[in-house]
Amino acid sequence: MIQDDELREIYKTSSQEHLERMETGLLELEKNPHELDSIEELLREAHSLKGDSRIVEVESVENLAHSIEDILGDIKKHELTLTPEIGDRLYETLDAMKKLVHEAVTNEPSGIDVELTLNTLISSVYGEDNSIPNGLEIPITITEIDPTPVYIEDEELKEIYAVTGIEHVENIQSALEDLKNHWDNYDRFDYLLRELHSLKGDSRLMGVESVEVICSALEQIMKMAQQGELEIDAYQNIMYPRLKDTLHGIKELIFESTTGKPSGINPNSLLQILKFSNGNADTDSFEEFSPEVENMMELDSIDMMEEESPEITIDIVPETPSIQETPPPAQTQIIKQSTPEIKKQPPKRETKSGNNGNKKEEPYKIDTIRVETRHLDSLMTQTGELTVTKIRIAHFASQMEQIVNLWEDWKMNKMQNRYRQVNSYTGENDTFENRIEALIQDLKSSAHDNSTRLELIADQLESKIKTLRLLPLSNVFSFFPRLVRDLSKQENKEVELVIQGEDTVADKYILELIKDPLLHMIRNSIDHGLETPEERINAGKPAQGTIVLKGYQTSTNIFIEVQDDGRGLDMEKIKETALRRGLYRPEELASMTRSQIQALIFEPGFSTRTFITEVSGRGVGLDVVKTNIERLKGSIEIISETGKGTTFRLQLGTTLATANVLLVKIFGITHAIPIEFVETSLLVSPDEIFSIEGRQTINFDNSAVSVAFLSELLELGVSQENKNTVHNSIPCVLIRIGKEQFGLLVDEVTDTQDVVIKPQSKLLRRVRNVSGSTILGTGEVCTILNPQDLLSSIQKRNLTGKVARNVDAEKARDRATILLAEDSIATRTQEKRILEGAGFEVVTAVDGLDAWHKIKTRKFDAVVSDIQMPNLNGLEFTTKIRQDHQFSELPVILVSSLASDDDRKRGAEAGANAYIIKGKFNQDILIETIQRLI
């Protein structure tokens, strides 16, 4: 951690800016690879970050920045081509650098292995020959592991894992031994891969990340061998000893996780040995551990015991590479010549949170704001004016004290009838009454002047302080080009992100809270909205889809739009989903407007997708977006046309601290309505209110507008004024939210006023129809109403019976029965616990064949199944379910560690309704997915 407070704050701000500009520049360079200005800008940022890091002695970031600078220099000299794969490595390195910067300024462990990150970058960009000469390189994907020991706390699961884990390892060892002599035994390959897969799944469930990741690497190696990409000689002479050592290390890690006794093993070292195998290794010397592994274990133990770890230097490779005999290869990383020496720091690792090791992501926060000097100068001037006014008000208070004293004297002397003494006291030509009158007039004038002056200064101060908190939308918009790039690549779609209006400014707090809603909408557009290139071409569209992220501002509001040119919302599917989930009856849907039907996608967990993936449909729908927008006192509107695209338009206030409101009264109590939602106010005669399909309606501008008494929407009953409206006109406030319009009947419309919004108590944070509160100038506490909630309330009044149906649906859901098919006893035990804890009845099956027999014995509401199982795998089981007409509508959820697009496609083709990847698994995702499907 940087010790100097001032340098630490400077480095925190500057390094974040450098990294953000580097990411933006890299995105531009990918679009225009021959644009020299982009490369020059990237080189400048990398060089500046390297220099800043050197000054504050953050060597990890300095070295990584140096390597990026070298790579960019080679791209500029046309010695290297920026491919998508190189781009991916550069982005990963930038992500690692962000964590290392955070570590340097907060002292929170980053969990980043700098040597591994650096070596992975260099080897992937320049090829493995630069790092591991004359050896066998295994092209496996390495995921960095946090080497902090993990201890399983659950007693039952710990005992299960201690037995099944070692059993899996011993089965794998036996299969490896058989393959050493019978390379063409494909049944043994299948058995070995199944055991590895089971051990990987069990370890993930227990949160033992080290064993999980190593098993994944072993799976990759053995699949290569099965497909003929690894020769028998290489396996016997090089890989087999490494695999044997690795399995011994896995045993030690399992023992560590179940007993709490440290193993002293760095799992990243085992991974490196698997990936980089030196062809000159003395295979005869391998027993339980190779010398490399023993040295790494020994070194790790020393690092944990000593205050200062020994320096490990990185050798420089000359133009003709050669292998150094000492230190051993596992300790020596050979990299490109221009890379500087790295000193290995004592290990700092982030602490595991929970058994699964997931660390909760911190909410987006803007820590610093840059302010122009002229704004500070203006604030200082206003502060001086405020001081002058303060002195004047103090003088005003002194005059008030004088008149109070005179008034007391006057009362006392009047009671004693000493008028002469009073006249003598007040002077010959100056009566007592005249002095009081003069003081009162002076006070009146001073009060008016001071009030006017204070109001002017306060308004200017408020305006200037708001200006200090205003930041451009680019602070948030800059996050999304990288997101769109990565997600479109993941979904095999071609997507261009167009950003407009990024200079529009908004309050800092709004920017912090708007990031997650925008993130969710963009993910939703890529996954749900935009078609695949083939689908777009068939529809007469360009293969590349477009998402437009636009911001603009009016005098009172900020608007942000997320627009795509995709398939648009399918109205019929939305109606079908609403009917299937029991939200509305057919006659209710028939009476809804188009915009009301489209707004149903904001219902909790609502999705028209029949196949749920982890990109945007993980049991969390657009209701999250709506909730967050309402927290910002804003609204969201949908504009969609089938086949042409969808636009989400967010309307937000310019600030959350104050609001301009319309004050109305019911039962003599004042309520406030945000003025930006008020279209107009008018008087309505009772004769003008008529009924359409059970809804109270008025005619406004030749349109039928639903109306309701505000007192009834707030469940306060009908006020006396409303009861006596047979002959009197009723005040009505017309509210507009997007395309929706409705009227609120009130007792009285009083005034408009600027108010300061008071923070809500935790107990009242989400009261229906109320968004906040304020204190009026009279001292009266006033609630600020929530127009979106009022719209929902008036719609629910028009669609009776919905609440009761939802209650019945919840009761039915509590009684749901789930069939769980999973061959791993540890995974099966844990998933059964999760489902039973959520109120489901659970029947378990040990494999697909067992599940197929049990599915015929009783009625099930859903099936949760693994894929890789003996006898009958999950895909075959799902296919059999879909082929039987009595199970054709039964929801099937596949839970697997197979994460490729092809795997998900096979799941959908088999007939599964949802596909959950175990690597991203948590109990909320599973429960919410089941609830959506049943």
Radius of gyration: 35 Å
> How many DSSP H or I helices?
31
Q: Please give the largest β-sheet.
A: 6 strands, mixed
Between the first and last Cα atoms, what is the distance in angstroms?
Answer: 51 Å
Number of strands: 25
Low-confidence stretches: 128-135, 277-360, 614-620, 800-813
Which topology of the largest domain does CATH recognise?
A: Heat Shock Protein 90
Structural class: alpha/beta
Strand content: 15-25%
Helix fraction bin: 40-55%
- The CATH superfamily of the largest domain is identified as Histidine kinase-like ATPase, C-terminal domain
Shape: globular
The appropriate CATH architecture of the largest domain is 2-Layer Sandwich
Give structural notes.
By secondary structure, this protein is α/β, with parallel strands linked by helices. The chain has 6 domains: 5-123, HPT domain (Four Helix Bundle (Hemerythrin (Met), subunit A), Up-down Bundle), CATH 1.20.120; 137-305, Four Helix Bundle (Hemerythrin (Met), subunit A) (Up-down Bundle), CATH 1.20.120.160; 373-470; 473-653, 2-Layer Sandwich (Heat Shock Protein 90), CATH 3.30.565.10; 658-800, Beta Barrel (OB fold (Dihydrolipoamide Acetyltransferase, E2P)); 815-933, Response regulator (Rossmann fold). Helices cover 50% and strands 15% of the residues. The chain has 31 helices and 25 strands. It has a 6-stranded mixed beta sheet. Strands 4-6-7-9-8 form a 5-stranded mixed beta sheet, with helices on one face. Strands 18-10-11-20-19 form a 5-stranded mixed beta sheet. The radius of gyration is 35 Å and the shape is globular. The relative contact order is 0.05.
